[in-house]
Predict the 3D structure of the following.
Amino acid sequence: MMSHRTRIKLCGLSRPEDVDAAVAAGADAIGLVFYPPSPRNVSAEQAAGLLQRLPPFVSSVGLFVNAGLEQVRQVLDAAPISMLQFHGDETPEQCAHIAEAVGRPFLRALRIRPETKPADLLESVHLYRDASPLFAGLLLDTWSDAYGGTGKVFDWSLIPAEIAHQAVLSGGLNVQNVTDAVRRLRPHAVDVSSGIEASKGVKDHALMRAFVSAVRAADAP
């Protein structure tokens, strides 16, 4: 039986050396944050320089929060990221409109509340899939009043088995808990930001390597 290979996205990268370390560690994707209030925010010009360090088959994801089409277009004109991640209050129609206008697939980040039901997640998948053929999947994060990651874990049992294999699991993942998370849920991918940091926006390269190793340990038969 073939073992499942969980994809790994290391998010919130803002320094050239962190991008190099992500690639060396074996990341499948890096995440760049285009949200000025975030300590991990990068400009389009910074992002352009970071993208030039990526080899083939390591993809780039741009995180946006309630951004308009022009803001997204300006970023992509300078830094041709390969996928969009909508992390605000965007409707399915707004996500579809921006993604189609710039010709990029998109992830929809959902912040999971304590009262969220598995049926709500199934309904979200259908809504976004119906809205656009460019919908690539859900990224499941922990609810907070602020936008962006919380560094906290949500109740993984809320994720229906029907969508887990296509979902990106986020929210409070770190070296200590990601092996268990992958073994329990078998998500398509995992996403980490604060769990691999020395300080906000500054990645710890040893933690990056350890996180990737912890995921691979869960993938092993």
